[in-house]
């Protein structure tokens, strides 16, 4: 049987509550060995070694844990056949994309979460964990970048997005569609990501203990530039605009960001709209302002890429190339 390493970080997949039919519960109460033991069928698929990396609700996930996970996977790559990372669903797609850009391991790396805690009626935690192990144990899963497995779908780290606060099918690959599916203890792939990932990227986090600070500024009718100014005054190196429509920005925020970009702040234009591309030089002249257009990356994934880009360069032209490649 293949050897699979499960790195646990907490979340609802390890959560428990008093009542199987009430909404209240606490994420991260069940430790990794207990969680794996809840699904004895896993023993027929793989030899599992569990490690509790942290125990957090994923709304408390941070860059220190991201760096720890990437460094751990890179260090343990040769001693295992694949990794499964259990994670809360609130920020799972950010962690997945960070690992997609920083892991240098050709073995499958699969993130998994659950929408219902282990103690809920019809919890999705056991089946999602089982499916994630099946996916990580399949040699077919290698070379496709970091993936997320939930609700029978295999989704790529770059495109996967949480689109619902409650449903078991909360996660979708909105622009490009699923990579494949897992059912009847088997994986089926129909697509491979073409953007560069894992060993194909230039980001090396092996010696990093922190990442450059990048904030996100949200746009809306009557939007204020107070958050943008606060990030600038606090020395942030980059700002991602979660713009309206095709990455559009209201005049107050646009002026503030444009002036700051001239003084060296790196600004990425993305959109609060969940699908479609923020295209370069549309209504906003990115060349004139020195901005970067995010393409199909969401604001929070743009932030992940911008933090990593800033470890290498502050040149908006080079960073624009990263946004096209990754
Ligand atoms: N379903 C979940 O996992 C939600 C939880 N708040 C978390 O992200 O840890």
TrEMBL record:
GO molecular function, one term: asparaginase activity
Alphabetical UniProt keywords: Hydrolase, Signal
EC class (word): hydrolase
Residue ranges of coiled coil: none
InterPro entries in the cross-refs: AsnASE_II (IPR004550), Asp/glu_Ase-like_sf (IPR036152), Asparaginase/glutaminase-like (IPR006034), Asparaginase/glutaminase_AS1 (IPR020827), Asparaginase/glutaminase_AS2 (IPR027475), Asparaginase_C (IPR040919), L-asparaginase_C (IPR027473), L-asparaginase_N (IPR027474)
Positions annotated as active site in the UniProt record: 12, 89
Pfam families linked: Asparaginase, Asparaginase_C
Domain L-asparaginase N-terminal: 3-194
This protein's record includes keyword Hydrolase: yes
EC number: 3.5.1.1
UniProt cross-references to SUPFAM superfamilies, sorted A to Z: Glutaminase/Asparaginase
PROSITE patterns per record: ASN_GLN_ASE_1, ASN_GLN_ASE_2, ASN_GLN_ASE_3, PROKAR_LIPOPROTEIN
Location of the Asparaginase/glutaminase C-terminal domain: 214-323
Domain of life per record: Bacteria
NCBIfam families documented for this protein: asnASE_II (TIGR00520), PRK11096.1 (NF008304)
PANTHER family in the cross-refs: 60 KDA LYSOPHOSPHOLIPASE, L-ASPARAGINASE
Family per record: Belongs to the asparaginase 1 family.
Protein name (Swiss-Prot/TrEMBL): L-asparaginase 2
Organism in which the protein naturally occurs: Arsenophonus apicola
Classification of source organism: Bacteria, Pseudomonadati, Pseudomonadota, Gammaproteobacteria, Enterobacterales
């Amino acid at each position: 049987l293949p050897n699979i390493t499960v790195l646990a970080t907490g979340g609802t997949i390890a959560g428990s509550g008093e009542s199987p039919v009430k909404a209240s519960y606490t994420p991260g109460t069940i430790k990794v060995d207990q969680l794996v033991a809840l699904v004895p069928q896993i023993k027929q698929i793989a030899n599992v070694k569990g490690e509790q990396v942290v125990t957090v609700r994923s709304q408390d996930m941070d860059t220190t844990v991201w760096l720890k996970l990437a460094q751990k996977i890179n260090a343990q790559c040769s001693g295992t056949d694949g990794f499964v990372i259990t994670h809360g669903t609130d920020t799972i797609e950010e962690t997945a994309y960070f690992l997609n850009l920083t892991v240098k391991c050709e073995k499958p790396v699969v993130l998994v979460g659950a929408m219902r805690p282990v103690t809920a009626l019809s919890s999705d935690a056991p089946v999602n964990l089982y499916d994630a192990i099946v996916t990580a144990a399949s040699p077919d899963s290698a070379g496709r970048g970091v993936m997320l497995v939930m609700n029978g779908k295999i989704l790529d780290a770059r495109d996967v997005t949480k689109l619902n606060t409650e449903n078991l099918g909360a996660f979708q690959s909105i622009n490009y569609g699923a990579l494949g599916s897992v059912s009847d203890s088997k994986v089926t792939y129909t697509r491979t990501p073409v953007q560069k990932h894992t060993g194909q990227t230039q980001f090396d986090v092996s010696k990093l203990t922190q990442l450059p600070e990048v904030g996100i500024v949200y746009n809306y009718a009557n939007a204020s530039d107070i958050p943008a100014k606060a990030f600038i005054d606090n020395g942030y190196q980059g700002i991602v605009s979660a713009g309206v429509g095709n990455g559009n920005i209201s005049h107050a925020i646009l002026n503030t960001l444009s002036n700051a970009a001239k003084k060296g702040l790196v600004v990425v234009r993305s959109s609060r709209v969940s699908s479609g591309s923020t295209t370069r030089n549309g209504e906003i002249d990115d060349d004139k302002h020195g901005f970067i257009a995010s393409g199909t990356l969401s604001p929070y994934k743009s932030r992940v890429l911008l933090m990593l880009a800033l470890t290498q360069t502050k040149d908006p032209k080079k960073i624009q190339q990263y946004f096209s490649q990754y």
